[in-house]
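Reply to dn_fold:

You asked what the input looked like. This is it:
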Amino acid sequence: MRRFFASLFGQVVAALVVGIALGVLAPQFAVALKPLGDVFIKLIKCVVAPLVFAVVVNGIVGAGDLKKVGRVGLKSLIYFEAVTTIALALGIVLAYVFEPGAGMNVDPAKLDGSALSGYTSHVKEVTGVVDFLMRLVPTTVFDAFTKGDILQVLILAILFGAGLSLLGPRGKPVADGLALITDVLFKVIGLIVRLAPLGVLGAVAFTVAKYGVGSLKQLGLLVGLFYAGVALFVFVVLGAILRAAGFSIFKLLAYLREELLVVAGTASSDSVLPQVMRKLERLGIKDSTVGLVIPTGYSFNLDAFSLYLTLATVFIAQATNTPLAFSHLLVILGIALLTSKGAHGVPGSAIVVLAATLSAVPDIPMIGLVLVLSIDWFVGIARALGNLIGNCVATVVIAAWEGDIDRDQAKRVLNGEVATDTAQILDQPIAAPQSI
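and this is what came back:
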């Protein structure tokens, strides 16, 4: 028992239990604990951008062959689009089979849209191909880091890494320096991660106090259907893909249990990005592949988010008695493929992207977003978990596809033959890139 609570996993489990208890027994005190969760996530996010930059640059330099970097990137995008399409289609199928919005008979004219004013102002940020492409390029080098836009940081890292690789042996001091900076950043993350139980405690206590421990049941079929849909997607779709690559989804989830618990407590996959990258490297995957796939996936491979996007869109149509033709469904699917890519980094991303998607289907009243606004935090837990799992599976599959994974090492780790505590993994230094 002492060994269990000495691990990060045990401490997070204890924090979840204590958070629920405080939310039920001392709701006023529990609400006051919200800053613990907020500060933990902010601490992680402030380090993520420079860490992603350093890891990606090190990965590109370590790969040596820029053609290989381009090949991994292309395969990643193909995989992302294929799997995202499956998730979007699954959302439509679930909505039509179970009809969660049928019978609500909501009159759009009677809905109060004032709560949406803070979200609709961001709709322009995720609409249109040109607008999306323009958002990829930061105004300045520092702008990407100050905003914490991971996709923009990734673009800068790829350009810098390619330039450093082309510099040849003259660039080795810079590469060595970046490797040292990466080690320092991982040490910093290691210190912050030890605060994860406090972050989870604050977030869970606040949520239970505000919404009630039984709130999830009261929110209806949509929430339950979405959780079931994410589980179906993870264990059936992603499980089959991972099995084809020679690995077990259950063992991978067990390996990532600490990170998944933190995500469940904070409803944010950003809170574990650095730890996940390091754990995937520990799994035997080359850092160049991890450094490209994971940051790119955080913007291009939002599986659970995509599933929710189509499910919620059809739900709103059903709830407002808006008939949808097959052509409407094709439009929703096509638009969602684009708008889902603009989700990361946009405030209130789920509501904003839903609004952007609905704007392309004028028949569905956008005011219907009010119906799903109140449940956004609850579905956000499953969205964050599904997105994280999807990106980890993608990294393993693409690494197997490229031959960039040590299968023997991966099997030892997944079988529990190697220590997998997050704090221990973050404490280990990484080697400087050798290809320059």
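The chain has a mean pLDDT of 79.
Hope that clears it up.
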